[in-house]
């Protein structure tokens, strides 16, 4: 075969302009360029399919001492549960219970539990205005405990512990409520606290110290320290 000689000096390279013409410029795609129609669209959940399509039902027992206040404030309790939460409610006088259930118009699966907590808070002694906060605010809870859970007291010792918690004309209880931003109900030896998780802890610690025998002045000082810290956060 005949050999072919190639002179490297005679090889011509393409001009830079030609190379630039051959380049393909890729521009970044912004989020605005994405077509909205490409996103998946889901239909709203049918209220009838909530909880597997089953009807939810709650019963709240009303103590005898709260039956009269319940009858007096029934309209204030009935209105938000029916109009806002779209639930059905009735008062069963034979069993002394308030019965709540969902219906076809109910849109929130957690509405029945909110309504039950609202009625339970009222049955424990809270006012309608304070208990209704459970319907508006998500991060509110209700905690109950007894004095014997903190310390076993009997007779005069138990009565003095209750007196230390309440204070003269309810002063100590009001101070704890205002500092911790909670609501407190003293029902004999039982204590009920309504508020957020952190605020309930502040009120519970103050009440526990009073039960254990701490003088109110020391508890006030601790509450003032806590109040100043809370102000610094905000």
Architecture overview:
The chain is an alpha+beta fold. It has 2 domains: 52-137, K Homology domain, type 1 (Ribosomal Protein S8, Chain: A, domain 1, 2-Layer Sandwich); 139-233, K Homology domain, type 1 (Ribosomal Protein S8, Chain: A, domain 1), CATH 3.30.1370. Helices cover 44% and strands 14% of the residues. The protein has helices at residues 16-22, 67-72, 74-84, 111-123, 128-131, 133-136, 147-150, 156-166, 171-180, 197-211, 216-233, and strands spanning 57-61, 88-92, 97-101, 141-146, 183-187, 190-195. Helix 9 (171-180) packs antiparallel against helix 10. It is globular.
Structural class comes to: alpha+beta
CATH class of the largest domain: Alpha Beta
Oligomer: single chain
Order of helices and strands: HEHHEEHHHEHHHEEHH
Strand content: 5-15%
Regions with little confidence, pLDDT below 50 for 5+ residues: none
Give the name of the CATH superfamily of the largest domain.
Answer: K Homology domain, type 1
> What fraction, in percent, of the residue positions are helical?
40-55%
Q: Estimate the global geometry from the Cα principal axes.
A: globular
Give the SSE map.
Elements: H1 16-22, E1 57-61, H2 67-72, H3 74-84, E2 88-92, E3 97-101, H4 111-123, H5 128-131, H6 133-136, E4 141-146, H7 147-150, H8 156-166, H9 171-180, E5 183-187, E6 190-195, H10 197-211, H11 216-233
Antiparallel strand pairs: 1-3, 2-3, 4-6, 5-6
GO cellular component, one term: nucleolus
Family: Belongs to the PNO1 family.
Domain K Homology: 139-212
């Amino acid at each position: 075969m005949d050999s072919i000689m190639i002179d490297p000096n005679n090889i011509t390279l393409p001009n830079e302009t030609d190379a630039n013409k051959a380049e393909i410029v890729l521009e970044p795609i912004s989020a605005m360029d994405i077509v909205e129609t490409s996103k998946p669209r889901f239909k709203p959940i049918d209220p009838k399919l909530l909880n597997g399509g089953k009807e939810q039902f709650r019963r709240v027992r009303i103590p005898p001492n709260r039956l009269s206040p319940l009858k007096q404030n029934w309209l204030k309790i009935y209105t938000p549960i029916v109009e806002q939460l779209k639930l059905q409610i009735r008062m069963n006088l034979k069993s002394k219970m308030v019965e709540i259930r969902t219906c076809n118009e109910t849109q929130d699966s957690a509405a029945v539990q909110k309504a039950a907590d609202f009625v339970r808070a009222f049955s424990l002694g809270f006012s309608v205005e304070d208990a209704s906060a459970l319907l508006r605010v998500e991060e509110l809870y209700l905690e109950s405990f007894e004095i014997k859970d903190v310390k076993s007291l009997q007779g005069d010792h138990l009565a003095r512990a209750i007196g230390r918690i309440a204070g003269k004309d309810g002063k100590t209880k009001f101070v704890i409520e205002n500092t911790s931003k909670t609501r407190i109900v003293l029902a004999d030896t039982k204590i009920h606290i309504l508020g957020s998780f952190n605020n309930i802890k502040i009120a519970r610690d103050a009440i526990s110290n009073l039960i254990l025998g701490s003088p109110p002045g020391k508890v006030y000082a601790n509450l003032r320290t806590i109040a100043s810290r809370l102000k610094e956060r905000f």
